[in-house]
């Protein structure tokens, strides 16, 4: 194995002594790509055309890709017993036929390269990569008065299921396509899409699943997120991509741009999209409204309701105590999207630490119950400096929030991008 000094990535536990650079071991090379191991963490470097990057991915992580995707295609763990997974297996062919026309050709080419490199069929690669569409965590952006130095922090809490063993195949990907922005992808072997990422233009994105399984006439969620990382240089451009692209299912996103700094929460379905500004009040109601008719409209009369109030949230409950909806009132300079109970816990923790927030403190603030029992990975981004701290669930299924965090730093793709980043600080 080759030992080399690297300057583009730093690795260390979140609370460890800061050092200016580290030592990594390159364990394999393929074309312009290579696999690096530091402190036991895999870092996959991909560079080139879509086909080249897919082939590098497949060759460098072949065993992990095969294990991970075959486990997804025919899962025998607790995940495989869920109704969502059973529906995924039953409807997989139809889902692929509807999603494939909406996938950009460059991603199809990358999946073909991945299949070739890993020795799998294209259908197996496609089945594994479209898997997130069958399953539907927390997203947070803090800035200005909320943080210690006024800069923007973006937090991604992925709550899924640790019993499936995805954490055994976790990998940080440093991706540099020939065309498009370089980006860091917190991911798993065999996946070309993104659910947690940051590009060299200081744009950071994370998603949270909702409902609507079966609405598949749009770009798959993970590929839409990656498409945005590759193409968006500003928050405005990122929001336009989400607004203009045909979408699937129901998803929530938090997108931030540290150059401004600013962020938006997004609620999207195939038919509607809404943007939430920092500190903006918002709410949702689960009670469906009846269709408009001769009675004069589609309003719904609710009797005997009660309000359960706190400084950051109001719950609207029936007389029997069932929650009908919520109204969130987040602190200034914050975007917080999560389940209503976890939102409340984090927002209250933020009020206690308001104006003192930084990366080490965020590690504590997102511990349970903000992170759930099935917490698969956490990422704390500081996009102004292109830094991220990442924790993955333990091999025994212990939540990611209880594990060590490791620090990475993305280098801008080109000298021009580096100058732009420097000027934006």
Structural class: alpha+beta
Low-confidence stretches: 1-22, 292-296, 416-425
Strand order of the largest sheet: 1-2-3-4-7-8-9-10-11-12-13
Q: pLDDT average, as an integer? A: 86
Count of individual helical segments: 10
Q: Which outline best applies?
A: globular
Would you mind describing this structure in some detail?
By secondary structure, the protein is α+β, with helices and mostly antiparallel strands. Helix content is 27%, strand content 29%. The chain contains ten helices and 21 strands. The chain has helices spanning 50-60, 62-73, 83-99, 105-118, 122-129, 221-231, 235-244, 340-352, 359-365, 415-424; strands at residues 2-6, 22-30, 33-38, 41-48, 138-142, 153-159, 170-177, 183-188, 196-199, 203-209, 251-257, 262-268, 273-276, 282-285, 306-310, 313-317, 323-328, 334-337, 375-382, 387-392, 406-409. It has an eleven-stranded mixed β-sheet with strand order 1-2-3-4-7-8-9-10-11-12-13, covered by helices on one side. It has a six-stranded antiparallel β-sheet with strand order 18-5-6-19-20-21, with helices on one face. Helix 1 packs parallel to helix 4 (105-118), helix 2 packs across helix 5 and helix 6 runs antiparallel to helix 7. The longest helix is centred in the N-terminal third of the chain and has 17 residues, at 83-99. The two termini are 38 Å apart. 48% of the residues are buried. Mean pLDDT is 86; it is low at 1-22, 292-296 and 416-425.
